Amino acid sequence: MAKITFVPDNATHECEDGMPLIDFCEDIEVSLKFGCTEGTCGVCELTVVEGRKNLSSITEEEREYLYEEDLKGGMRLGCQIKIKRGHSSITWKGTRAK
Ligand code: FES
Question: How far apart are CA 79 and CA 46, in angstroms?
C-alpha cells in the first residue's frame, strides 16, 4: 500500500500502489480540484513536498505545460500523476474554506 498526504486538507490516506491520483481523489474527500484531466488546463497544479520518487515520472504534457524550473521545484499536474509506492506528500494553492 502507498500512502499520500494532502497537506492543505491535513489528511493522509492509504491507497493501492499504482493508482492514478485523479481516480483516488474521486474516492476520498479532498479539496484538490481537476479540470480538463488531460494536462492542458493547470487546474490540478500542485507541488510535491516529499516522496517525488514514489510518484510516476513527469509526462510530456507536464513538460509542455510547466516551466522546467517549476518541475525541478516539485511542481506537477495532479491529473498526470500515479501514486506508485511508499509515502508522498503534496500541497497546492487552493485550500478548503474554513
Ligand atoms: S486537470 Fe487540467 S491539467 Fe490537470
Answer: 10
Distances (CA, A) of 88 to 52, 58, 64, 65: 7, 15, 24, 22
Q: Identify how many contiguous H helices and E strands the chain contains and give both numbers.
A: 3, 7
pLDDT band at 98 (very low <50, low <70, confident <90, very high): very low
Taking CA atoms only, the protein residue closest to ligand 1 atom 3 is 39
In order of their start, the domains of the chain are 2-91 (3.10.20.30)
pLDDT digits (tens, 9 = 90+) for 22-68: 999 999 989 999 999 999 999 999 999 999 999 999 999 999 999 99
C-beta 55 within 6 A of ligand 1: no
Whole-number Å distance, alpha carbon 84 to ligand 1 midpoint, is 19
Q: Strands (DSSP E) along 1-98, which ranges?
A: 2-6, 11-15, 19-20, 45-50, 75-77, 82-83, 87-91
Biggest CA-to-CA distance, the chain = 36
